[in-house]
C-alpha cells in the first residue's frame, strides 16, 4: 500500500467481510454482525529487534490471509478505507493455500 509503512513488527490488514447469511439461510442484520477475525495483509514492517539489537524479520508477507483475535489491533482509517494495525504476535495463524 503506497504511502503507509508499518513500523517494527506491526502489520496493516484489510478485514475480510463476514458472511451475511447463516448456513440455514438466515440474514444477519448489520447491528448483530461481529467483526471478522480474518484479514489480508496489505503491508508489513521490517520486524522486531531483540535486546542485542538483532533484527528478526516477520514470518508473514503481503498477500497472506491471516486469523487474528477478535479484539486485537487498532482500527484506523487510511485513504478512506477501514484498516487494522496490529503486532505480528497478535496474529494467530496464516491460512495455507492449496495448490495443485
Q: State the domain count.
A: 1
What's the mean pLDDT score? 83
Question: How large is the radius of gyration?
Answer: 16 Å
Which structural class should the secondary elements be placed in? mainly beta
Share of helix, binned: under 10%
Biggest β-sheet, characterized?
Answer: 6 strands, antiparallel
CATH topology category name: 10 Kd Chaperonin, Protein Cpn10, Chain O
CATH homologous superfamily label: GroES chaperonin
Name the helix and strand elements from N-terminus to C-terminus, one letter apiece. Answer: EEEEEEEE
Corresponding CATH architecture: Roll
Strand order of the largest sheet: 6-7-1-2-5-8
Strand content: 35-45%
Q: How many separate helices? A: 0
Your description of this structure?
The protein is an all-beta fold and 100 residues long. The protein has a single domain, classed as 10 Kd Chaperonin, Protein Cpn10, Chain O (Roll). The protein is built from no helices and eight strands. It has strands at 10-15, 38-44, 48-49, 55-56, 65-68, 74-78, 81-87, 91-94. A hairpin with a 2-residue loop joins strand 6 and strand 7 (81-87). The model has no long low-confidence stretch (mean pLDDT 83).
Please name the defining characteristics of this protein.
100 residues, mainly beta, 10 Kd Chaperonin, Protein Cpn10, Chain O, six-stranded antiparallel sheet, two-stranded antiparallel ribbon, 8 strands, 0% helix, globular
Amino acid at each position: 500500500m503506497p504511502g503507509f509503512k508499518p513500523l517494527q513488527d506491526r502489520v496493516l490488514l484489510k478485514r475480510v467481510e463476514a458472511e451475511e447469511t447463516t448456513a440455514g439461510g438466515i440474514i444477519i442484520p448489520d447491528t448483530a454482525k461481529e467483526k471478522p477475525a480474518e484479514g489480508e495483509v496489505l503491508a508489513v514492517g521490517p520486524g522486531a529487534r531483540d535486546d542485542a539489537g538483532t533484527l528478526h524479520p516477520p514470518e508473514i508477507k503481503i498477500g497472506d490471509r491471516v486469523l487474528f483475535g477478535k479484539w486485537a489491533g487498532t482500527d484506523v482509517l487510511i485513504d478512506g478505507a477501514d484498516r487494522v494495525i496490529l503486532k505480528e504476535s497478535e496474529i494467530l495463524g496464516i491460512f495455507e493455500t492449496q495448490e495443485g
